[in-house]
Amino acid sequence: MEQFNNVTILKKANTYFDGKVTSRTIVFNSGETKTLGIMMPGEYEFGTDKKELMEILAGNMEVQLLGSEDWMTITGGQSFEVPRNSSFKLKVTELVDYCCSYLSE
């Protein structure tokens, strides 16, 4: 999907890691939420309450999911899922443009 129609966008930015990761929340008429954001190069760890689908629109990173020893390389055009009540680590090697969808089980 190239664009989202008939949505509400929250003005206040979500900022993490001293502003190195930022996003804006989009709310759909159905109540579904997504965030669109940017990550600067660095290493980060995030926790999840809901299941998440991370779509990488541009850029390059390595991802390690909770309980895994392996790191996956993810580039623009790829995505990965994170279970609810979990966490994941990121090594962002270049500016990343992303869309995070919060999924119901």
Automatic annotation (TrEMBL):
Coiled-coil segments on the chain, per record: none
Pfam families, A to Z: Ppnp
GO cellular component terms listed in the entry, alphabetical order: cytosol
CDD domains the record matches: cupin_PpnP-like
EC number assigned by the record: 2.4.2.1, 2.4.2.2
Origin superkingdom: Bacteria
InterPro entries for the chain: Ppnp, RmlC-like_jellyroll, RmlC_Cupin_sf
Function: Catalyzes the phosphorolysis of diverse nucleosides, yielding D-ribose 1-phosphate and the respective free bases. Can use uridine, adenosine, guanosine, cytidine, thymidine, inosine and xanthosine as substrates. Also catalyzes the reverse reactions.
Protein family (similarity comment): Belongs to the nucleoside phosphorylase PpnP family.
Name the record gives this protein: Pyrimidine/purine nucleoside phosphorylase
